[in-house]
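Slide 14.
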Amino acid sequence: MQSDRNATLMNRKRGNPNWGMPPAPIPAGPTEFEIVAKRLKLIPEMYSASRELRRWCYLNRNRCYVPEWLLKEWRMDVEIGYGKDAA
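Slide 15: predicted structure.
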């Protein structure tokens, strides 16, 4: 009886089996640009003709991702800067 009890205690695994393992990668979500384009019900072929999307891109071009081909098509420049000297 005692040996059966000791055998079941020895077989039971204890602790976190994931200890020391890197966390699982978090899947990337949509960009802010993709969210806005979806809200405006646009497909990529319609992006360059949309006034609302162009205005949003102009206001957010330095803060959010905007496809490079669209920036070139609309001739928008992006100011790249980080830290104190950004302004």
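Speaker note: The chain is about 40% helix and 0% strand.
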